[in-house]
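The data are quoted verbatim for completeness:
=====
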Amino acid sequence: MARRKGHREEELPFVALMDTMTNVVGVLIIVLVMIGIGLAKSVRKVLSDLPPVTVEEHAKLKKEVEETAPKHDPRQVDEENTRLHEQLKTASETLQTMDVTMEKQPVKLINLDELKAQLDARKKERDEKKANAEKLLAELDKLKAQLDTTPVVQPPPAIAVKLPNPRPMPEKADIRHFLVAGGRIVFINDEDFLKRVEAELKKSESTLAPTRETVKDANGNPVMQAEKSGRLTPVRRIVFDPKKLADYLARARLDTRELKVEIPLSPNSPNIPVKLTAQPGAGETVDQAKNLLSSFQNLLRKFKADSKSVIWFHVYKDSIPTYLAARDLVDQIGVPVGWDIYDAPSFVRYVPPEYTVNFTPPPAPTGPPPAVTIAPPKATLD
């Protein structure tokens, strides 16, 4: 009869058991070594802290230590060995109950190459962050240095500005224009300059104006004007050649010691502008204008005698304080006054519309109608 096969029990491999026992014994040895090292360090510390002694004192203390040193008890050593054997036996029994087969409990081995690659990536990331941090710190130091060397900005002194009190412009007011630019107050005698330009246009009319046009109203009828005798005659428009007129007026010497005269003709307009710009050193400063005998105050007193005179300041952006000081002088004398901000340190007037230059209007736009524009408000006194 065949022998019945007994039940096969899974046993813990002998090699694994020996490894476990060796690990336990190794741990115990390491513990004993650490205890010995700790005792040696304690002894050295105690010896280093002891005060210096003589040879006789050392011998006496050594004798006392030897007499008081405890003796090892063999029973305690046996008990410690028994306890360690019990722990070893318990560990062995625990290992026997573990299933260490690869099929039932696979063990995942550590991939050292993968860990090394991760470590290299982390080091590279750390170096990049360190470089960025050093760059930011250098920039911070640079900004701190600039801040330390930057002078403290002192605000300009406060300027008292009066609130405007709008009033209507007098009818048929005779406006006297003043240009306030470059810290100086310059009287612009624009009417006189327009008359001088008109005189030059009349002188050159026969040679520079090849055509004359009759001015017509919106209905196509001629615009009539009354002569000194009362007889009505049609208004004529004198049309100049722009290039010839510009060359002629450039040689006319219209400049004065106070103002420079320019005729900046535009190809997009038939009108003839007269641009007046203050000469270097023209006009008066605030300190000069405060003198009772200054030209500015003499003009103010002259204009005050005319009830229709109105002082009007054209203020460039660099001379607001100058305007405020000049305005105080005008208010003290009591002349009506108004002002506006000018985008250029010059003043422009146009000659009467009967004097024009050749102009070809652009074609009418074919796109959407132009945007609705709002007329500027009427000039008022303040």
User: Anything to note?
Assistant: The mean pLDDT is 81. Residues 112-149 form the longest helix (38 residues). The radius of gyration is 55 Å. Residues 171-210+239-359 form one domain.
